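QUALITY CONTROL LOG
STEP: pairwise intake check
CHECKER ROLE: data steward
CRITERIA: each record must contain a sequence immediately followed by its structure tokens, with no blank fields

ENTRY 1 OF 2
RESULT FIELD BELOW
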Amino acid sequence: MSIKKHHRILKIKFFGRIILALVLSFFVSKFLTDNIFLNYSPTIRQDVAKNIWNKTNYLAGFFNPDKLLSLIPFQKKFSSQIPNEVKNELTSAPKSEIQKGIYVKETNNIKQTEIHYNEIEWEEVNYLRKSGTTETIRIPKGTNPPPPQLF
């Protein structure tokens, strides 16, 4: 191998590493601005762990929906506390729609609410936080957003 060819290979490796580093740094900065920092400011989100956990669960749902539902801690605990005869009453009870995507079943003294998130029509609204920053939130269409600076 000639020296000229050897230098060319070294240049390709060197510039290839630089390009790889630039691409990786772009994706890291994109992740940080979307998930860690608040509205492209140096302020770190208050709910960083919760936000990352929710996105992880959301992605896990694409691969295995049953696994995503099993990650909800209150689901198993709640369903195991209901006696079987009450469960049977609730399954035979008629379902009434409160709002699009929200249903209620009711028997003697027991009420069960079912929320089907994929059926709800969402609306994006700008919300002013206590810290003075503005954040875009999703609320069900036709409902009022929370009062400004409540959170």
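ENTRY 2 OF 2
RESULT FIELD BELOW
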Amino acid sequence: MTELELEKRGLIILHAAFSIGVLLIILLLHVFVKNIDFSTIGNDLLPLEFTALTIAAIALVLANYFFKKKATEIDSDELTLENAGEWRQAYILKWALLEGSCLINTLFYFFVGNNAILAIVAILLLLLLYVSKPRFTNI
């Protein structure tokens, strides 16, 4: 296996760790703490819930902004040995922002009570984290 393939495999493993870690935390809290109650979707948002949703939106915007900014600095859609470290930095920043926001929404859901909006946002952020797998044109 070449060094380039090892770099890509490292990114894939890192992505899997981010995705699976959040999923496990959501599942463990769901199983051991409480069930998700979808009957509360129509309720008013409390300030803490509004804060969690705002954090999710800001993290999503920042993740995309910083990733695109870093990708334009790299100036290549291909993974090479020279730019592998820069791609790793860009992906880690993107994934960390999405994962952090997902965890914040998950924890706020379990602290605030049964407002399924926060659980739905956490799950959607987890899906966004999952679909942001590293993709390169040369490998």
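INTAKE CHECK: passed for both entries
DESCRIPTIVE NOTE, ENTRY 2: The longest helix spans residues 3-32.
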